[in-house]
Amino acid sequence: MENSVSSAALNAAREQLDAAEAAREVILLQHIANGVIIDSRTVQIAPDVVIAPGAVILAGTILRGRTVIGAGCIIGPNTLIEDSIVDEGSTVNASQVYSSHIGPHNNIGPFTHVRVNTVTDYGVHLGAYVETKNSNFARGNTVSHLTYIGDSDVGKYCNFGCGTVTCNYDGKDKFRTQIGDYCFIGCNTNLVAPVKVGNGAYTAAGSTITKDVPAQALGIARERQTNLEGWAEPKMEAYIAKKKKLEDEQSK
Asked: Which of 18, 26, 32, 217 reaches 20 to 30 Å from 51, CA-CA?
């Protein structure tokens, strides 16, 4: 089907786009003149955004709403921040932040989704494919990858293993998870809220924690391993033969 847009409509659209681009560039130039480091026209900054001199805004970054960026921050590349505060010295790399407060000297990203009402203290790391929502993180927490922390209060210097999930929703109501200081949450732990993990406690990898874990305790909630000798052999015979045949053909 042919494009039926008239030349007049295209010209009007071009003028509208040119005006928007010109207005966007004026905002970029104002920030650069104020000491913000921006070296790409792909950056988009809304009129109400406040950026401290010395901050670096990298290519593909979008800053919306009443966002505030502190001194010494590195934002981007390819980052979206909306109605949020990022305190001094923090890095937000290839991530999205909404209606939250990122504390000083945080390391966020890449590919982190910081959802509404997330608050972090000094030196928090939220890494690759981490999602947070309505949660408070005290000083020095490390959440490196593939983890969801929602409706939670986390004490200082906790370490979260890969695949940790706070199970905060039962289909009707939301519940909070409370984690003390210096906790170690093992890989693939499910924390079924409401639940508390005491100061200095551990959870064993692969556990589904449904009861409170006392301070200094190890919470284990998994079935003991059972090995059925020889169970796999008949199931694997055809598969192994197929792969050996393929390997022989490829080696000819």
From this structure: 18
- Taking the mean position of all CA atoms in its chain, how far away is CA 160? 13
Task: Give me the catalytic one of 31, 105, 113, 145.
Answer: 145
Nearest to 39 by CA among 31, 48, 50, 47: 31
pTM for the whole thing? 0.91
Rounded Cα distance, 183 and 164, in Å: 13
Q: Are the beta carbons of 168 and 150 closer than 8 angstroms? A: yes
Give the type of residue at 73: C
Strand partners for 80 = 62, 96
Question: Each residue of 138-190: pLDDT tens digit?
Answer: 999 999 999 999 999 999 999 999 999 999 999 899 999 999 999 999 999 99
Asked if 145 is an active-site residue, the reply is yes
Question: Which residues, including other chains, have CB under 8 Å from residue 130's CB and lie 6 or more apart?
Answer: 112, 113, 143, 144, 145, 146, 147, 148, 149
**Residues near 46 by Cβ (< 8 Å), separated by ≥ 6?**
27, 63, 64, 65, 67
Amino acid at 231: W
Nearest Cα neighbor of 115 from 145, 151, 68, 141 is 151
